[in-house]
Structures are given as structure tokens and as C-alpha cells.
Amino acid sequence: MARGPEHGVRPAFRRWRARRPFWGGLLLALSGAEILLTEKASLKVVMHIGMQGLAGYLLPVVMLLCGLLTLFSPAQRVFYSIIGILASLGSWVTSNLGGFFVGLLLGAVGSCLVFGWLPDQEPRRSRRQRRKDARAAQDVPGEESVADTTEDAPEAAAEATGEAVRR
Predict the structure, then answer these.
(1) What span, in angstroms and rounded, lies between the C-alpha atoms of 90 and 59?
(2) Which residues in 4-110 belong to E strands, given as ranges?
(3) Which of 7, 16, 82, 107 has CB atoms 3.0–4.6 Å from 31's, for a disulfide?
């Protein structure tokens, strides 16, 4: 049985991605991973230093977990974004200036994207879909198409709404 293009892996991933703050969660997880990868001290040295050294590993792990939890549990996104931004800002002090500012900035931007995501918003339509819908609206019989309008159509529309057209 042949599958149509609407039954593939990509459309399923797009539907899954549209129901969660995908880019914010991804940036937050990447920031935690980047800071972890830029840690210079080994875990043996960190354990010798104490809590200050352990925080250098703890905060990036928290950022990574917040990013992943945002992707897989978007209902708690506000809590994860607040914890993520606090961990990002704390990484400045504990983790090589926040992973040399890259992890800090990625974490801050990701947390802001997660915080600002609204679940009840309609997913954006692609440019291709908007053009297709516009062509379908033009092809409806009995309605005036864009090609049939005359040059004085803005004046007629302005008269109908009571507005003046500036040239």
C-alpha cells in the first residue's frame, strides 16, 4: 500500500514539533551540552574543590534537563524556562563564563522562547500553503480575481470605507 506525502516521517515530526516550544527547548538543551563540553576541570578535581566546583557541572546538567523536559513535557514549560534562565545566568560564575558566553546566550534565548510560547496558537502556514490558498480563492467562479481589477480599484475601496487614498 503506497503512502501519500501526508503519512511520512517528516509530516509527523512537524505535527509533533508544532505542539511544543521546539526551538526554545532545543536551544536550552544545546546550551547545557555546550557548557558541559567546555568544562576544563576533571570530575576528580571538581570533587576535591567542593561545592563551587560541583556547581560547574550541576548547572549545565540542569539546563540540559530543562531543555529536554520542555520538549517532552510542554505543559510545564513556564517552570522549566524559569529554572533554565536562572541556571543560564548562574553558569556565568560557575562554568567558564557560561561556556565562553555561547552557552549563556543560547540558554537565555532558549529560555525566553520557551517562556513566550503559546500552546493555543495556530501553527504557522508555510509560504507555499498561503500561495496555494490565495490561488484557490482567485479561482472561485463568480468572484472578481486580482487580475481583473482596474487601476482605480483603490479609490473605489476607499470610497466604500470612507477613507482617502494618498498618492
Answers:
(1) 7
(2) none
(3) 107
